[in-house]
Design brief:
It contains 18 helices and four strands. It is mainly alpha-helical. Helices cover 59% and strands 6% of the residues. The relative contact order is 0.10. The strands form two sheets. The chain has a two-stranded antiparallel sheet. It is elongated.
């Protein structure tokens, strides 16, 4: 994605909220507060028994037009969690997160009190995630167009929240947010709300995040850059200590920053590539199928490479290179083109009503 993509897209598309968006937000948030009352009681008791009061946590966030407001959440961290550090992002295995808080975050139930923010008109059910002023200023310095997220009300859920994940780079999250801002519709809002309810009731938020991280590692693995043992060790390290899979691979010396950069451009594409695997694509065929679809190799060459792999093992990307069917640079170039094509396809898929 071009660095100016977000700015250009917003400039070319006037921001106009879906018809009946505010009445829908008001009625659904009011209904949600009434229905969720038993959950409020259970969560409040659990927080109090583990760590006492306060039950509700309030924090300043930026809303539409840079207007500041207080966002409400169930407290999921220890008291005075930032007294010694100042504003910092939470991270996996964060020692500040309580046991009850860990469950609340996995299910997104910690955000239930934001129904009051929606009822008051400070937020919407669907929109960019509300960011803290300090962190917003920090990100805006390095990501052009980040301020465009403030052209609409922040949301409890959105494209970035549903299709992104914990380790998605802010630049990619911005792409998702701008995609929503420029293509708002009532049906798109319903689609994202239903998806969010499904992830919450099936405890799928954390599972989706782990699956995508594994797929990112799988793409690097299938290209023959790292071994299965190295990926497995990196994922085990991540499970224990958290962090981004790419940074862990670099830290352990399994991949260079330069090679990782080649593959990080596929990060958003890998999200949609989960559909490939769910449709019974064999993992060992992943790179080969991309090469074939891009007309870089022939069907005969792919069959020979797969036959060789079946008999002697190895990664399909390396085999194609060793057999002289494609160069290492050609493999990367093809992945880039495929990444761009599938990213644009995803853009259409997300906004299709």
């Amino acid at each position: 994605m071009d660095d100016n993509y977000s700015q250009a897209e917003v400039d070319l598309n006037p921001v106009k909220g879906p018809f009946l968006k505010r009445p829908f937000d008001f009625l659904l948030s009011l209904l949600g507060l009434i229905i969720s009352l038993p959950i409020w009681v259970a969560v409040a008791i659990a927080i109090y028994l583990e760590d006492g009061r306060p039950i509700i946590f309030a924090q300043t966030r930026l809303g539409e037009g840079s207007k500041k407001f207080k966002i409400y959440k169930f407290r999921s961290m220890i008291k005075d969690a930032e007294v010694n550090t100042g504003p910092v992002w939470a991270y996996k295995k964060d020692y500040r997160i309580t046991r009850v808080g860990s469950f609340l975050r996995k299910t997104k139930l910690d955000e239930l009190p934001q129904l009051f923010n929606i009822l008051a008109g400070q937020m919407s059910f669907v929109g960019p995630r509300a960011e803290r002023p300090e962190l917003f200023d920090e990100i805006s310095k390095v990501i052009p167009g980040f301020e465009n997220r403030l052209r609409v009300k922040p949301g409890l859920t959105g494209i970035a929240q549903v299709y992104g994940h914990y380790n998605t780079h802010p630049k990619n999250k911005l792409r998702y947010d701008i995609l929503y801002i420029c293509n708002q519709s009532f049906l798109l809002d319903l689609k994202l709300i239903i998806a969010s309810f499904w992830f919450t009731f099936t405890f799928s938020w954390e599972g989706e995040e782990k699956r995508i991280d594994k797929l990112i590692g799988q793409v690097i693995l299938e290209a023959g850059v790292i071994s299965e043992e190295q990926l497995r060790e990196a994922l085990l390290y991540q499970e224990k200590w958290g962090g981004k899979i790419g940074e862990i691979l670099i830290e352990k010396g399994y991949i260079t920053k330069e090679k990782l950069k080649d593959f990080l451009n596929m990060q958003v594409t890998v999200n949609s590539s989960a559909n490939w695997f769910s449709n019974n694509y064999q993992k060992s065929n992943f790179i080969g199928e991309i090469m074939l679809a891009a007309n870089v190799i022939t069907n005969e060459q792919l069959e020979k490479a797969l036959e060789y792999q079946k008999g002697k093992g190895g990664k399909i990307g390396k085999i194609l290179i060793n057999m002289g069917y494609i160069s290492e640079s050609g493999l990367r170039d093809c992945l880039y083109r495929q990444a761009e094509a599938r990213t644009r396809a995803d853009d259409k898929k997300f906004v299709r009503a």
